[in-house]
């Protein structure tokens, strides 16, 4: 996988879930989705920049976007994508059948146990999880580590029905039930968080070792930040050159909305900065941690190719193997 710029693209605000720890209020999550361009218009506009993108599709719930699969197909002709999803949408079936897993860096499947129970959504979650896993997509399950999740960690883990896939605890950040997290975690909750993290790192050890770089939204080391997330003010950062944030209508920012706009993708006015510069904003600390690391702020990052290329795409090998296994079990 070779890309020039990673983008955190908030594709839409709309979401079918109302998690009480979500950063967005309910009226925003309930907004009607607006399409600002067709799939081909978006893909052509990204390609017109002359850059190869790794587009992190988020929202809202990105798989609820109209023409979601067509958009992904158009984007992945020349670019790469990653995805945050609650795995509730029927579109993910077509996604699994139509999109080449080699063009998808990672899928972060959010479990959201309380909301999942309220909406009776566990069956569809596990069905889509199994479908994507068997199709050869790089996927892991994360769960926002509320005090309730940490208290019932074993029960939460049992909700994931795909063998070998366990929920990775994700740091609760910001205001939750009148308390500020992660500072508000007590000693027992921190211990439970560490135990969940340790179990997840063990379960995904081979998967993580096989990757050339960790997923950008990487909660596997969140137990390092149980007493507070780091600040990045004035640190040299490649945001604006190797990383940007894109809003639903295509406006591009270095990261936070308080930074100067860098044009618009659809109007073909986007221009990346010339290189790293001191941090002048606040954003999601996962991206900040990556793009202040010199390992990822140099020249274009390239994933090493296999020494002996196969004539058969890896995702087809996985699909054929899965089908053969089912036949042999009969």
Topology, pairings included?
Blueprint: E1 2-3, E2 5-10, H1 26-29, H2 39-48, E3 53-58, H3 68-75, E4 80-85, H4 91-98, E5 104-110, H5 113-118, H6 122-134, E6 139-144, H7 147-151, H8 153-158, E7 167-170, E8 174-176, E9 179-181, H9 187-203, H10 205-210, E10 236-237, E11 243-246, E12 251-253, E13 261-264, E14 277-278, H11 285-291, E15 301-302, H12 314-329
Parallel strand pairs: 2-3, 2-11, 3-4, 4-5, 5-6, 6-7
Antiparallel strand pairs: 1-15, 8-9, 10-14, 11-12, 12-13
Helix pairs in contact: 2-3, 3-4
SS element count, helices? 12
Low-confidence region ranges: 301-330
Give the number of domains. 1
Structural class: alpha/beta
Largest sheet: 9 strands, mixed
The whole-angstrom Rg is 20 Å
Q: What is the CATH class designation?
A: Alpha Beta
Strand order of the largest sheet: 7-6-5-4-3-2-11-12-13
Percent in strands: 15-25%
- Strand tally, please? 15
Q: Considering DSSP H and I runs of 4 or more, what fraction of the residues is helical?
A: 25-40%
Rounded average pLDDT:
88
Question: SSE order, as H and E?
Answer: EEHHEHEHEHHEHHEEEHHEEEEEHEH
**Termini gap:** 38 Å
